[in-house]
C-alpha cells in the first residue's frame, strides 16, 4: 500500500489553495508556500470569478467546454463541505453579442453538447432584467451560473487549511527547484534548501522563472487583463452580465467589477481612458445609475499557454514534480485539484484535464 505522501505546493492562489484543500482533506500532509504574506494576492485577487461554460464554445474547443462543465459538480460538492458559504446560490448569467444570430447559434451548439443555456428573446430578457436600458434581441441565459468572491473564498480555504493542519509558509519566495537524479529534491528559500517529497508548482506566471533553468518547452505565457472595480447604485442589478460593451457583475452591495481586455499600450493615460469609457458604458447600460465612481483599475497576469491547453500533471522526466497552471483558473480549480489528487495517489481520474505531455 502507498504511504501517505507529503506534498509541497508553491503558490497560494485559487489553484494552489484548492489543491491544498483537496489533498489535506484526504489526509495528505501539505506544505503551502507563497511569496505574499496572505493567500490570494496574485491574479486571483484580480479575477472576475465567473463560473461558467458559456464562454467556451463547444464547437471550437469541446475539451475546454467539457471540463468547465465538469467544474459545476465539483463546486457544488465543495460548497456542501463549506455549509454553503463558498458561494451563494446561482445568480445566473446573461450573455449576448452584437449579432443575435450568433448568440442563438452559440446557445444551440451548447445544447447539442448537453449543456443547458436558454435563448431569451427581447421581451423575456426585459422581464428578467428590467434594469437594462436596451434589451438585446437574443441572449444566452445560464440560470445555474454563479460567481466566487475571491477574498471570501481565500479566507474560507485558509481557515479550513489551518484546521486540517496544513503547514503554511507565507511571505517566502521560492528561489529555485533543485533537481537531482530526476527528482525535485529540494526548494531554495532564503538561500537555504528545503527537502521535498512531491512538489506542485501552482505559481501561475511565477512558474515561468521557476521552470526556466530546466528549459522553455512548457509553453506557459502571461495573458494580462484588466479588472475595474466601481462603486455605484444600480437599482435591481445583482447578477452577471456579459454584453458586447461590458462584462460586469455585482461583488458586494453597491460594488461591481468589470473585466476588460488589456489596452495595446497600457500607459497610465490609456488605463484612465479605459476607466472613463467603462463608467460611461455602465451609465448607458443600466437605468438610473447614481453615485458611480471608479475605485480601482488593476492589471491581472492570467496564466495561459501557447496552445491554450492546461498544464496540469506530472512533468516529464522529473518524477515528483507536478504543474498546476491553467486558464480559466477559477472555473477549473476544483477539477485541477481532483485531477492532481488522483495523480498523486496514482489512481485513475474521472477529471482528467486535456493537457499535453509537460516538457520543460
Ligand atoms: C480581469 C480578469 C478576469 C478574470 N475572470 C475570470 C473568470 O471569470 N473565471 C475564471 O475562471 N478565471 C478568470 N480569470 C483568470 C483567473 O483569475 C486565473 O486563472 C486564476 O486566478 C489563476 O489562479 P492561480 O492560483 O493559478 O494564480 P495566482 O492567484 O496568481 O496564484 C499564484 C501564486 O503563486 C505565488 N508565487 C508565484 N511565484 C512564486 C514563487 N517563486 N514563490 C512563492 N510564491 C510564488 C504568487 O504570489 C501567487 O499568490 C480572470 C483574470 C483576470 C485578470
UniProtKB/TrEMBL annotation:
Top-level taxon of origin: Bacteria
Keywords linked to the UniProt accession: Membrane, Oxidoreductase, Transmembrane, Transmembrane helix
Transmembrane spans: 6-24
Single GO MF annotation: oxidoreductase activity
InterPro entries in the record: FAD-dep_OxRdtase, FAD/NAD-bd_sf
Keyword Transmembrane in record: yes
Statement: the UniProt record of this protein carries the keyword Oxidoreductase: yes
FAD dependent oxidoreductase domain mapped to chain residues: 7-342
One GO cellular component term: cytoplasm
Name of the protein in question: FAD dependent oxidoreductase domain-containing protein
Organism field: Thalassospira profundimaris
Amino acid at each position: 500500500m502507498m504511504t501517505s505522501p507529503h506534498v509541497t505546493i508553491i503558490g497560494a492562489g485559487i489553484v494552489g489553495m484548492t489543491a491544498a484543500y483537496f489533498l489535506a482533506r484526504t489526509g495528505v500532509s501539505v506544505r503551502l508556500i507563497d511569496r505574499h504574506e496572505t493567500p490570494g494576492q496574485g491574479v486571483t485577487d484580480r479575477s472576475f470569478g465567473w463560473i461558467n461554460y458559456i464562454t467556451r464554445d463547444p464547437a471550437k474547443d469541446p475539451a475546454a467546454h467539457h471540463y468547465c462543465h465538469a467544474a459545476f459538480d465539483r463546486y457544488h460538492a465543495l460548497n456542501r463541505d463549506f455549509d454553503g458559504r463558498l458561494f451563494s446560490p446561482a445568480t445566473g448569467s446573461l450573455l449576448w453579442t452584437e449579432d443575435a444570430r450568433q448568440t442563438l447559434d452559440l446557445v444551440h451548439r451548447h445544447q447539442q453538447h448537453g449543456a443547458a443555456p436558454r435563448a431569451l428573446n427581447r421581451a423575456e430578457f426585459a422581464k428578467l432584467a428590467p434594469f437594462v436600458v436596451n434589451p438585446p434581441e437574443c441572449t444566452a441565459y445560464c440560470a445555474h451560473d454563479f460567481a466566487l468572491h475571491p477574498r471570501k473564498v481565500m479566507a474560507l480555504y485558509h481557515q479550513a487549511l489551518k484546521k486540517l493542519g496544513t503547514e503554511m509558509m507565507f511571505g517566502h519566495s521560492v528561489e529555485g527547484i533543485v533537481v537531482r537524479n530526476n527528482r525535485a529534491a529540494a526548494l531554495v528559500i532564503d538561500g537555504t534548501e528545503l527537502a521535498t517529497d512531491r512538489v506542485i508548482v501552482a505559481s501561475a506566471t511565477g512558474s515561468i522563472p521557476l521552470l526556466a533553468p530546466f528549459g522553455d518547452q512548457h509553453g506557459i505565457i502571461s495573458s494580462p487583463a484588466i479588472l475595474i472595480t466601481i462603486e455605484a447604485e444600480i437599482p435591481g442589478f445583482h447578477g452577471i452580465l456579459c454584453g458586447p460593451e461590458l462584462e460586469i457583475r455585482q461583488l458586494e452591495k453597491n460594488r461591481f467589477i468589470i473585466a476588460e481586455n488589456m489596452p495595446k499600450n497600457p500607459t497610465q493615460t490609456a488605463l484612465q481612458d479605459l476607466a472613463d469609457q467603462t463608467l460611461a458604458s455602465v451609465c448607458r447600460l443600466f437605468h438610473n445609475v447614481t453615485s458611480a465612481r471608479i475605485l480601482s483599475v488593476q492589471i491581472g497576469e492570467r496564466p495561459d499557454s501557447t496552445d491554450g491547453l492546461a498544464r496540469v500533471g506530472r512533468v516529464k522526466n522529473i518524477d515528483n514534480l507536478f504543474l498546476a497552471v491553467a486558464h480559466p483558473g477559477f472555473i477549473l480549480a476544483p477539477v485541477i485539484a481532483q485531477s492532481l489528487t488522483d495523480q498523486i495517489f496514482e489512481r485513475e481520474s474521472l477529471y482528467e484535464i486535456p493537457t499535453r505531455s509537460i516538457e520543460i
